[in-house]
């Protein structure tokens, strides 16, 4: 009798991954560009081959079984290996090549990162970079699901499976745009902000990655109406610059906007919070030689810089 690994179809595991990640068979069908009956049939075939029920159906909903959780974890590892197979064969120490896949939050402004990218490219010109952007949760999702080797994002709490090291400490200040009534005023106090409308990040919640900003507002009773939110730093800047309300921004990112007069700094003038941006990677992922070399070089530069 043939072993299960000799006859198991990888496409069945890929379909099962989509079902669990999408939370429904219909959404999995849309993601895979197949019909819903085809997804249901693939799930049935996988359960038959494994001899286990992987989900428990309850009408349109389902819950994953213990066996299903185990299969899901193993399928993730297999997916990561397949997705990175072509990269692994490029690991040639004597002439480094390959692809370094990064997932980063928007508008990362880091002199150390820029310097490392420049020096690494000069030393290893055959290495290429693929950089995807997203929210902090999307960056962490990409790392956990083997879609990127390295990530740069904020974090509210430790995530099982991810390793971290500080990349950059960001100091946040309140700003307003030219059309805002507070623009140009220098004799302001915190009391002047209490009746103002706010623009905020989507993660500016007590349980989000920008919890320090939410905590500061709560302590200062800055509970004015929120007129705009976004997970994109660029869009938050745009809304503040356009006068929708005041909002917190990292000083080093918007220093040129402030110097040119597009933004005006508001109290507290010593800053409201310090938030750390982290370099992250998946501890369980076997990265290729190019990614390993880049990670080591970046971490050494961060150590020299005191991070």
Automatic annotation (TrEMBL):
Q: Span of the secretion signal?
A: none
Stored Gene3D superfamilies: Periplasmic binding protein-like II (3.40.190.10), Winged helix-like DNA-binding domain superfamily/Winged helix DNA-binding domain (1.10.10.10)
Domain called HTH lysR-type: residue spans = 8-65
Query: Which GO cellular component terms are attached?
Result: cytosol
Which UniProt keyword terms apply here?
DNA-binding, Repressor, Transcription, Transcription regulation
MF-aspect GO terms: DNA binding; DNA-binding transcription factor activity
Write down the PANTHER family for this protein, in alphabetical order: HTH-TYPE TRANSCRIPTIONAL REGULATOR YBHD, LYSR FAMILY TRANSCRIPTIONAL REGULATOR
Question: So what family is this one in?
Answer: Belongs to the LysR transcriptional regulatory family.
Name by which UniProt lists this protein: CysJI operon transcriptional activator
This protein's gene is called cysL_1
